[in-house]
Design goal:
Distance between the termini: 6 Å
Radius of gyration: 20 Å
Number of helices: 9
CATH architecture of the largest domain: 2-Layer Sandwich
Number of domains: 2
Order of helices and strands: EEEHEHHHEEEHHHHEEHEE
CATH topology of the largest domain: Ribosomal Protein S5, domain 2
Strand content: 25-35%
Helix content: 25-40%
Structural class: alpha+beta
Number of strands: 11
CATH class of the largest domain: Alpha Beta
């Protein structure tokens, strides 16, 4: 009987001006253990962030990913037991759902005896996962970029010097889970974003937080998201006064990422207090950039 444990990090996409261009893995993790069973039962146990969010085990993204791979390869074990320990907040812009899908795809591949290569797993994840940019970033770790086209996934791992970030997640009941990008954008705003991408990449390569934050301003997506985050400007200014070099929204939010060289928890506490002043409850983490990506542990029992 096979058992595989898959650990994947949280991810930040849409980094400043890098709209749909970059993904950064962060040190919050989800761990998924998937075991074969000798009967025909499907058992799904969830703990941590988002536990109980999906009404039945069949609707959990890990299960959906497993089933898609089983269908693709036209093979499946008799029964499956899934245990999920998730520390990545769901619906936060931190890629929890994408990590679930990636874990299910990898778990299914291991249960079926490694039928797919690493490259095939990346390609399949890009096809199946609803958030392929987050999923690829979680698999690769560090900083990465990928494009999905009719020819498949083209991707690269990019150089990054690891550093710590502050994550602050406000609890906003009516925050939109999807965001429709505008069909038309001003040329000057597009040029603004594109001109900062080379500086942003060099900042990551050097670990130069000052350069990263100087190139972090986005004029395409973040301004539209900010209006859905109560107290955003107050929180941003509070973070700056507490020592943050810069702040941006992770993915489509509402999680905020603050960059700083020091005093990370001081900044985190100040941001949580600023949200409280705006009548919004918030939580905070201080985590490193994750450079490992996916970690897999597999065992075979008699």
């Amino acid at each position: 009987m096979r058992k595989v444990t898959v650990r994947l990090p949280a991810t930040m996409t849409g980094i400043g001006p890098a709209v749909r261009a970059l993904g950064l893995a962060l040190g919050l993790f989800t761990s998924v253990e998937i075991s074969e069973r000798s009967d025909n039962q499907l058992i799904v146990e969830t703990a941590g962030e988002g536990a109980g969010r999906y009404s039945t085990g069949l609707r959990h993204p890990v299960t959906l990913a497993l089933m898609r791979v089983f269908q693709r390869l036209e093979r499946a074990p008799l029964g499956v037991h899934i245990r999920i320990q998730n520390n990545i907040p769901v619906d936060s812009g931190l890629g929890a759902e994408a990590a679930f899908w990636a874990a299910g795809i990898i778990g299914a591949n291991n249960l079926l005896g490694h039928s797919l290569t690493r490259e095939a797993i990346l390609q399949l994840t890009a096809q199946l996962a609803p958030q392929p940019d987050n999923a690829i970033a979680a698999l690769l770790g560090g900083l990465s970029s990928g494009v999905v086209s009719d020819e498949g996934l083209t991707y690269r791992s990019l150089p990054v010097v690891a550093f710590r970030v502050v994550i602050v997640l406000p609890e906003i009941e009516d925050y939109p889970l999807t965001f429709a990008a505008p069909d038309v954008i001003p040329f000057n705003d597009a040029a603004h974003n594109l001109s900062r991408l080379p500086l942003l990449l060099d900042g990551f390569r050097r670990g130069d937080l000052k350069l990263i934050t100087q190139a972090l301003e986005d004029r395409l997506i973040n301004p539209r998201l900010q209006s859905h985050i109560p107290g955003y400007n107050h929180v941003r200014e509070t973070a700056r006064l507490a020592g943050a070099l810069g702040l941006t929204i992770s993915g489509h939010g509402p999680a905020l990422i603050a960059l700083a060289a020091k005093d990370h928890w001081q900044i985190a506490d100040a941001m949580v207090a600023a949200f409280a002043n705006a009548g919004v409850k918030a939580r905070a983490w201080v985590v490193p950039v994750d450079t490992q990506g996916v970690v897999i542990s597999a065992v075979q029992s008699p």
